[in-house]
Amino acid sequence: MLLGMRYNLRRDDELEVALDTVTHAGARGCGFEAYGLDAGCRADLVLVDAQTVAQAVVARPVRRLVVAGGRVVARNGVLHAEAASL
C-alpha cells in the first residue's frame, strides 16, 4: 500500500507490481531459496479477505491468518502468545 501511495500506482496491474515487489521480487532480492506456494518452500504466507490483488493492497484488510516457517503466528489480526516470544 505504501509503495502504491508513494509512486502513485492506481491501476490494477500497477498494484500487482507493487505486491510482487514486496513478495516474490523481495524474496529474490534477499536471496531466499525455495520461495512461493510450492512443496518444499518455507511456508510463509498471509491470508486476507480480498477479491483481487488490488483490493488486498489498497483496502489493507485484517490479516486472517499469518504463517511463518510453517507455524501459525497470528489469526484475525491477533498475534499468538507463542509467536510473541520468537
Q: Characterize the overall form.
A: globular
Order of helices and strands: HHHEHEEEH
Radius of gyration of CA atoms, rounded to a whole number: 14 Å
Instruction: Detail the poorly predicted runs.
Output: none
CATH topology: Urease, subunit C, domain 1
Oligomer: single chain
Structural class: alpha+beta
CATH class: Mainly Beta
Instruction: Count up the helices.
Output: 5
Structure commentary:
This protein is 40% helix and 20% strand. It is of the alpha+beta class. The chain has one domain (2-84): Urease, subunit C, domain 1. The protein has a four-stranded antiparallel β-sheet. It starts with a helix and ends with a helix.
Please give the structural blueprint.
Blueprint: H1 2-6, H2 12-22, H3 24-30, E1 45-48, H4 53-59, E2 63-68, E3 71-75, E4 78-79, H5 81-84
Antiparallel strand pairs: 1-2, 2-3, 3-4
Helix pairs in contact: 2-3, 2-4
Compact overview of the structure:
The chain is of the alpha+beta class and 86 residues long.
Task: Sum up the structure in keywords.
86 residues, alpha+beta, 4-stranded antiparallel sheet, globular
